[in-house]
């Protein structure tokens, strides 16, 4: 079994799997269950200045597939609605009872120096390993000038990070909102403010669905709905890109990253780490299936590491970052073509109709003399788009095979047909 | 007089085997219970939404199966039902009675790698039942009245399908039915566990919702009506009379009480309420290898017969009953004996049993008796050795190979007279084929009337 221990922002963790600041980490009861289940750490649900907020009833909306599997949840719950002293006492108890597990205190306050510093100090005194700044909540709190209202303004991100760094001597994680135009602006601000790490992404601002009988967005609160924070496996691609952008940018590449966003399986976690995360945080998968999902996260990653010969997570952390490029750096002379293995084909015809209707008319369908249908790729028409490969219901039936070429690699800036290049000559 | 008695059918199901799905099965409840919404959701999501799907090709009525299943999966079951019914107005019966395992479900691509087809029949039933359970206007509109009138002989699947499509195309239809109820074999010829809750009658009522169709009951061809008279009074005639007569064994004592046609046995059972009042023997022999033989054998067992022996003159692989149906017989405790033919009916004042001779194929592949015989005791013998056409009343139409001859437009050799269903040679003698025949004949009649 591979060693899954890791270090992020100077904090040692038993494994890279933490529960994100959210309803599952609202109180000691849940956190104890999480630690017992095997989670390496938790980010406690965001603490604010008393009096505690009051939450509404009806809090989550859902994006299901047609088989009622949850692809994503959105929520309109606010930060912890329990008194600060109660939360801090429970944090102390958890730290004492589970000394090997990581607890990070998440916090949020109005944009006032004293408020951030006082709250950060109180939380630090409870014994947490670090503090996470919630600058991302896209619903409710932002209407009070907190959460994403701060996170969307890089100057405020820098200012708040600096205030907290000045007030405590434990690592500070600045949690970023994806509801911005360029993640690097907020990441750079956090870095300049002295953050030890960034956590991303917070939830994506969203209306998840509409009740078309009542004509109200969901979740419904007495006949009205509001936008909320979207999470779950559906947001993973958005998060992966933002993580990779920070990891490969010269200005932010030294920041540690706590990757968040739809991580459901061990493979998701490996992808986040390969693209730059030093550890990951999970919420929705646990909300859907319970804390026990950590078992496969640990076991799956460990098995995969053994298979690949990795003995520590550092060996693959950021391993894919060098291969993340701008489009302009891609080789225009690379060519790949779909190959259909007729032995695996179940003759559903999906590749044919997808290519015929929406792509390049590169898959023919002909009647076989012995009955049934034969699907074949027309190499001259196939542009290697991968659509058939992705929609085929049978694993390994369609493969993408690179075409051998004598042409040297050529990027678009070097391409003879690039008008910008021609203009320069 | 027959000595057959109605059995006390135990609610606990003690008298029959384990094929019933629910514990309180009384022997007549649904063979395949209706899907719940959850089951429909899960199963509809197994469909791959194939393009130019093999299941559609395998359906005699060419129902657009991937489209209707997708509609179920998106929460549009009534739209799914319309997709089904637009191709097959008796989609509800076909969902229950079709041997899907040799039609659509056999062609399902899910068989290739997983060996488990999407349960198309159950999904079809879910959709059609959903629509029929709602108090909605009939889903199809009639074209403007053409002023033409069509006589349909027989209110079975072929006749009713023809009537519905003809009415939809704007014609006025009068259906003449010899029996007291419509539905044909849907009402009289399928095992009770396939057509629960009076479904055949509910389906006809639904079908008639299109308007423009009148049914006259108790009008038998050759007795109350004739093809010639109908030709004179109507612009076109459709004959969907099915196969009105049955084959005989040609043995002495065949008229003996207790010796009956399996199809008559099923008919009586279907019209008996409560079903447990239906008399059945203690030891029942069923002769034949088709679905009717299985229906009769399973139904006899479920009615409380101690022993039911199904005897077929060839092997299991030669039976026209599907593998599923054969298994159903076995799981219901029916004893199946292959390679034997009846040679004598044994009676001594009352029916005692039957003597069989073992059979085999000779060197030339011909079925021959081996000379070795055995006896099976019985107080009831049900013959399911095929039906044949009643030719007496079909004067003017060419008959060949026991079927009415039709051209590619379903027109018989009598001009203006069309035919479909079991009385013609189209495909298998199945409800679904009859529905297709009726539909296509109506389209052909429409073209015929327009060109006239």
Automatic annotation (TrEMBL), chain A:
CDD domains: DHPD_FMN. Keywords: Iron, Iron-sulfur, Metal-binding, Oxidoreductase. It is an enzyme of class 1 (oxidoreductase). Its EC number is 1.3.1.1. PROSITE patterns: 4FE4S_FER_1, 4FE4S_FER_2. One of its GO terms (molecular function) is metal ion binding. Residues 336-368, 373-403 form the 4Fe-4S ferredoxin-type domain. GO terms for cellular component: cytoplasm. SUPFAM superfamilies: 4Fe-4S ferredoxins, FMN-linked oxidoreductases. The keyword Repressor does not apply. InterPro entries: 4Fe4S_Fe-S-bd, 4Fe4S_Fe_S_CS, Aldolase_TIM, Dihydroorotate_DH_cat. It catalyses: 5,6-dihydrothymine + NAD(+) = thymine + NADH + H(+); 5,6-dihydrouracil + NAD(+) = uracil + NADH + H(+). PANTHER family: DIHYDROPYRIMIDINE DEHYDROGENASE [NADP(+)]. NCBIfam families: PRK08318.1. Involved in pyrimidine base degradation. Catalyzes physiologically the reduction of uracil to 5,6-dihydrouracil (DHU) by using NADH as a specific cosubstrate. It also catalyzes the reverse reaction and the reduction of thymine to 5,6-dihydrothymine (DHT). Heterotetramer of 2 PreA and 2 PreT subunits. Belongs to the dihydropyrimidine dehydrogenase family. This is dihydrouracil dehydrogenase (NAD(+)). The lineage of its organism: Bacteria, Pseudomonadati, Pseudomonadota, Alphaproteobacteria, Rhodospirillales.
UniProtKB/TrEMBL annotation, chain B:
The keyword DNA-binding does not apply. It is an enzyme of class 1 (oxidoreductase). It comes from Thalassospira profundimaris. It catalyses: 5,6-dihydrothymine + NAD(+) = thymine + NADH + H(+); 5,6-dihydrouracil + NAD(+) = uracil + NADH + H(+). Heterotetramer of 2 PreA and 2 PreT subunits. SUPFAM superfamilies: alpha-helical ferredoxin, Nucleotide-binding domain. Its EC number is 1.3.1.1. Involved in pyrimidine base degradation. Catalyzes physiologically the reduction of uracil to 5,6-dihydrouracil (DHU) by using NADH as a specific cosubstrate. It also catalyzes the reverse reaction and the reduction of thymine to 5,6-dihydrothymine (DHT). Transmembrane segments: none annotated. Residues 28-134 form the Dihydroprymidine dehydrogenase domain. GO terms for molecular function: dihydropyrimidine dehydrogenase (NAD+) activity; iron-sulfur cluster binding. The lineage of its organism: Bacteria, Pseudomonadati, Pseudomonadota, Alphaproteobacteria, Rhodospirillales. PANTHER family: DIHYDROPYRIMIDINE DEHYDROGENASE [NADP(+)]. This is dihydrouracil dehydrogenase (NAD(+)).
